Amino acid sequence: MLTIFILISTTVLVVTADICPCESQDLCQPIQQERDFEVFVFDVGRKAWRSYNWSIVTTVAAFGKYDSELMCYAHSKGARVVLKGDVFVPYIVDPGNRTAWITEKVNLAKTQFLDGINIDIEHAVEAGSPEYHALTALVKESTEAFHREIPGSQVSFDVAWSPSCIDKRCYDYVTIAESCDLLFVMSYDEQSQILGDCIAMANAPVSQTLKGYYQYLDLKIDPKKLVMGVPWYGYDYLCLNLSQDGVCSIEKVPFRGAPCSDAAGKQKTYSWIMKQINSSMTGRLWDQRQQAPYFNYEDQKGQIHQVWYDDPDSICLKASLVKTKGLRGIGMWNGNLLNYIDEGARQQTTMMWNALVHC
Ligand SMILES: *[C@@H]1O[C@H](CO)[C@@H](O)[C@H](O)[C@H]1NC(C)=O
Ligand SMILES: *[C@@H]1O[C@H](CO)[C@@H](O)[C@H](O)[C@H]1NC(C)=O
Ligand SMILES: *[C@@H]1O[C@H](CO)[C@@H](O)[C@H](O)[C@H]1NC(C)=O
Ligand SMILES: *[C@@H]1O[C@H](CO)[C@@H](O)[C@H](O)[C@H]1NC(C)=O
């Protein structure tokens, strides 16, 4: 937004206009074309986006600071850039508050030449409560407003790995899916509520992940509304005890009614994990049951850690469902987490991007 002050004798006129920051005015036009296959990337800021594989990216959800250079570049590649939308759910039970929030987001998208919004609400909501209905209304009204005000824009909504009230997020998934362009399924943090043994496990085991999609599809949600989200990060757990057969027991950290959770671990980027594996005690191991890679390492204090993560092999096992079930596409949390800097990491980074589309 450029503000021009014009002084005419003693009167001050304020003229505001949205000036396109791109080389060419055309690049400020919202993307209109629809591509068959979505590759949906979350970006959390800085300039890693320069190293993304733009021949496959279709949408970037900009969760970092606004970067007009990213917008111009994405548009030059025919890719959308969408805003982040988060709101405290109790506030939007009030219809006036809801409309005000939507109006603000539409105006922000217009002034920043963006192509829609990704609504990321991860609050606990009780089925049938006023919040439950308000959230559904928020998605429906946001989609109507964005489509009307920014033709071709996209409205997406982030959902947990399964529709069965994960982390007490009991939303009206069916109506929400009908009311927006796509659901980004966050198939990760699947150990946020550990009900069995309190042990380190995979972030997104293959069978558990696939079960989540079957549940969404059983609700008769159109597969073309579902984008599979895979993690480009893993969890580093400090083992309280490592049993002879490699089971790592972890501290009990309760979450939303479960006695243990992945909050006992620390989230680590794929880039960090690939460095750490070189100084591990075990090298890369593969768990047959969860179909995920992991390794153990000893820290400087001599304590043992177990790291669970995803790599091209585990991602491919999940991504094959995108093809067999005809889902809308795939994406990841998040694009920044690979090593785009070290020459020696080039292949590992390329393989992670490629695993999204060829398996
Ligand atoms: C409306 O939203 C504001 C914050 O934007 C909040 O302070 C207020 O309590 C909300 N009103 C209602 C009725 O929820
Ligand atoms: C801890 O690990 C040791 C070594 O494998 C094993 O003998 C012991 O049973 C474990 N203790 C617990 C409480 O799991
Ligand atoms: C890890 O070791 C492998 C093989 O020794 C090497 O190719 C790779 O560059 C190393 N990676 C890092 C991040 O140090
Ligand atoms: C980008 O992805 C496409 C499709 O997987 C692949 O053919 C191409 O080699 C990739 N480009 C780079 C620079 O890795």
Provide a compact summary of the structure.
The chain is an alpha/beta fold. The chain is built from 8 helices and 17 strands. The longest helix is centred in the middle third of the chain and has 20 residues, at 130-149.
Report on this model:
- Helices cover 27% and strands 24% of the residues.
- The protein is an alpha/beta fold.
- The protein has one domain (2-234, 311-357): Glycosidases (TIM Barrel).
- Strands 3-4-5-6-7-8-9-17 form an eight-stranded parallel beta barrel, surrounded by five helices. The chain has a five-stranded antiparallel β-sheet with strand order 13-10-16-15-14. Strands 1-2 form a two-stranded antiparallel sheet.
- Helix 3 (130-149) packs parallel to helix 4 (173-179) and helix 7 packs parallel to helix 8.
- It is globular, with a radius of gyration of 22 Å.
- Mean pLDDT is 94; it is low at 1-15.
- It binds 2-acetamido-2-deoxy-beta-D-glucopyranose (NAG) (4 copies).
- The site of one 2-acetamido-2-deoxy-beta-D-glucopyranose has 3 residues, from loops.
Which features characterize this protein?
single chain, alpha/beta, TIM Barrel, 5-stranded antiparallel β-sheet, 8 helices, 17 strands, globular, binds 2-acetamido-2-deoxy-beta-D-glucopyranose
